[in-house]
Design goal:
Blueprint: H1 4-17, E1 22-31, E2 41-45, E3 50-52, H2 58-79, E4 100-104, H3 108-113, E5 121-128, H4 132-143, E6 148-153, E7 159-163, E8 171-172, E9 176-181, E10 185-190, H5 194-205, E11 208-213, H6 217-220, E12 229-231, H7 235-242, E13 248-252, H8 257-268, E14 274-277, H9 281-295, H10 299-304, E15 305-306, H11 318-333, H12 344-356
Parallel strand pairs: 10-11, 10-13, 11-12, 13-14, 14-15
Antiparallel strand pairs: 1-2, 1-5, 2-3, 4-5, 6-7, 6-9, 8-9
Helix pairs in contact: 1-4, 5-11, 7-8
Length: about 350
């Protein structure tokens, strides 16, 4: 499954290219608790089809109800052969022209009605019938791995796309909405064993593009996870060609130092937001020592190396361990601090002390 923003953009681009009417909703402000962060997007087609989300579901339902009824009323009015002079024109018409903003959850009753947390309020910007060519241009740039700033002029709805070097938070003022769209997050796994199958599957439905690298035929021959690129290169060569950036993570799962160490060495010299290796506390301590002594890895880079990887959840099976690893990757990606008691090393050391006492 690809990045949710790309899925939303693909859907609305397809609808608009077919000549269907559609709107693009963006969360531009929140107050208090909010189900979805600022910058979240949702696309709604005239048929009522929806991709993406801006809340837990209730606001989506309201938008669908409000605007698909408006689409239907507008269509009936447009397609009628003639409207008599005294005929009633529907009061609800599909909005046209420049974007409009709408707030949900201002009152306690509305917050309850729309399923918002207590005190939660959010504001959406609705763009009506965005240009298909501009949408397709944005998608094409994202597919090429570019980071793109999309600027919407609020008075006219005109869109300008600009490549940028670093991700940025959404900004909105009286004149412009500026939202940054980036290429997919990527995950490179070293080792094609059972753990990699579970982790690759979870990474896919979390929006990561996943590549698995393993030169060992006995492992790659049985690989069967659809939608995951498989490489038989030597891992350090694959890391180099993968070119990890700030939206990439590299995880060593092979348990073979000949494969893992050189891959980690290459990854630690990159901008990857997460670099980690599976293994026991003893194995990870020995690995860090090897990297420092034999490969001259700096103390700063050694501190970047996660291991033992995953959050401590008492996991034992490959599937549970993969869940704990994915949780840690997402926490780092989302800039969520991880408490010491949730780190595997700290938690297991604490348990060992308890047993000895």
């Amino acid at each position: 499954m690809e990045n949710i923003d790309v899925m939303v953009l693909r859907a609305i681009a397809k609808w608009r290219s077919r000549g269907q009417r559609a709107l693009l909703a963006t969360v531009i402000r929140t107050w208090g608790s909010s189900p979805r962060p600022i910058g979240s997007i949702m696309a709604l087609c005239e048929t009522g089809a929806v991709v993406g989300s801006v809340s837990g579901g209730c606001i989506e339902d309201d938008l669908i109800d409000r605007y698909t009824k408006a689409y239907a009323l507008t269509a009936r009015n447009t397609n009628s052969e003639q409207v008599s002079g005294d005929a009633q024109i529907p009061s609800h018409q599909l909005p046209l022209g420049p974007p409009q903003s709408v707030k949900y959850g201002i009152s306690a009753d509305e917050a309850h009605r729309f399923g918002l947390p207590c005190g939660g309020t959010l504001e959406l910007l609705l763009e009506f019938d965005p240009d298909a060519n501009s949408l397709n241009d944005l998608i094409s740039k994202l597919e090429q791995g570019q980071l793109i700033q999309r600027q919407v002029e609020l008075e006219t709805g005109e869109v300008v796309l600009t490549p940028c070097a670093t991700p940025a938070e959404l900004t909105v003022d009286a004149h412009y909405l500026v939202n940054t769209f980036g290429p997919e997050y990527r995950m490179l796994l070293i080792g094609a064993g059972q753990m990699a199958e579970y982790l690759a599957t979870m990474a896919k439905f979390n929006g990561f593009a996943v590549c698995v690298c393993d030169p060992r035929e006995e492992y790659t021959g049985a690989w069967a996870v659809p939608g995951v690129a498989l490489s038989k290169e030597m891992p350090d060569d694959r890391v180099a060609s993968f070119k990890p950036d700030r939206r990439s993570c590299v995880i060593a799962l092979s348990h073979d130092p000949k494969l893992d160490d050189l891959a980690l060495l290459e990854a630690l010299n990159s901008d990857a937001f997460y670099v980690g290796a599976i293994g026991s506390r003893r194995n990870n301590t020995a690995r860090k020592e090897r990297l420092k002594v034999h490969f001259g890895v700096s103390e700063e880079n050694i501190l970047r190396l996660k291991g033992p990887i995953g959050l401590y959840i008492g996991s034992k099976t490959p599937a549970e361990i993969a869940v704990s690893i994915m949780a840690e990757v997402l926490a780092v990606k989302n800039d969520v601090p991880i408490a010491k008691e949730h780190e595997v090393m700290h938690a297991k050391n604490a348990k060992s002390t308890e047993y000895k006492s």
